[in-house]
Amino acid sequence: MTAHPLEREAKILIIDDSPTSIRLVSHFVRDMGSVHFATRGDTGLKMAVELLPDIILLDVEMPGIDGLETCSLIKRTPELADVPVIFITAHTGVDHEVAGLSAGAVDFIPKPLSEPIVRARVKTHLTLKRQGDQLRELAMRDGLTGIHNRRAFDEQLLIECRRHRRTPGPLGLAIVDIDHFKPFNDFYGHQAGDACLRQIALCIEESARRPGEMAARYGGEEFAVILPSTEREEACRFGEFLVEQVRALALPHEISSFGMVTVSVGVAAGKPAIDGCNNEIVAAADSALYRAKAEGRNRVVLAGSGA
């Protein structure tokens, strides 16, 4: 499970071809977060996609891809669209500011660099970014269970699919369904049903402990867990672990033949190959879940295995 985005240390990325400027800016902001740097626009963009920084300090004049083009590329990258970019530049004047703002920058720091100005502007935009993250985080949480909602799941799965296309390793997904939940609701009442959903959600979220894993309420009594860099067998073992963890809760369910609340899990894993792979892996895990329910529930089925 990843650290809460509002509790972790801020990540500051400097993209500048001048080692002197990098050292100076790093010194100015060293106590505001972890500082990372790149000396070219193309390598800075790649680093930004992997790092997902909270702010980018970008030089305008650089060899190859200049700062304006780099900023435009950053803003066209979905996972970086909300990251504030501050230009570091010796250029002044309305035309330069309009060009920078049109490229997506939020502010400018003039050269020669002044420590109070650098610190004040970085602090301001880190604060604004944190406030924006808080609002986005609230919008990404399920009101009943408190874990991530379907919107957050869809966005994160798309990001992970794109990332896994660039890096080695397969992407795994588990879809979880509470067995015989409607009879549970009818027998025990909706308040007990809501309490059951919250307990199962907490159990699933606490089971997603590795970096990058994300649990979400997929809809109704269904949940989903994104499993980065996970092989098929490992994804299956995770599904079996979930089934065991829910059984260990021993929540009474008199209408179920098992006598307790159980879950069925469909898992899938593979290397994303094309755009739309997010839909393919969901379809594969959903098909495996259907098999798990058809074969008696209270079990995990791996997509592509068996008959």
List the helices and strands and how they pair.
Blueprint (H helix, E strand, L loop, with lengths): L10 E5 L3 H11 L4 E5 L2 H11 L3 E5 L7 H9 L9 E5 L4 H10 L3 E4 L4 H25 L10 H17 L4 E8 L2 H8 L1 H18 L6 E6 L2 E6 L4 H18 L13 E8 L6 H18 L5 E3 L5
Parallel strand pairs: 1-2, 1-3, 3-4, 4-5, 9-10
Antiparallel strand pairs: 6-8, 6-9, 7-8
EC number: 2.7.7.65
Keywords: Phosphoprotein
Catalytic activity: 2 GTP = 3',3'-c-di-GMP + 2 diphosphate
Describe this structure in words.
With 307 residues, the protein is α/β, with parallel strands linked by helices. It folds into two domains: 11-139, Response regulator (Rossmann fold); 150-302, Reverse transcriptase/Diguanylate cyclase domain (Alpha-Beta Plaits, 2-Layer Sandwich). It contains ten helices and ten strands. The chain has helices at 19-29, 41-51, 67-75, 94-103, 115-139, 150-166, 181-188, 190-207, 232-249, 277-294; strands at residues 11-15, 34-38, 55-59, 85-89, 107-110, 171-178, 214-219, 222-227, 263-270, 300-302. The strands form two sheets. Strands 2-1-3-4-5 form a five-stranded parallel beta sheet, with helices on both faces. Strand 3 (55-59), helix 3 (67-75) and strand 4 form a beta-alpha-beta unit. Helix 7 (181-188) crosses helix 8. The radius of gyration is 23 Å and the shape is elongated. 37% of the residues are buried.
Question: What keyword list fits this structure?
Answer:
307 residues; alpha/beta; Rossmann fold; Alpha-Beta Plaits; 2 domains; 10 strands; elongated; CheY-like_superfamily; EC 2.7.7.65
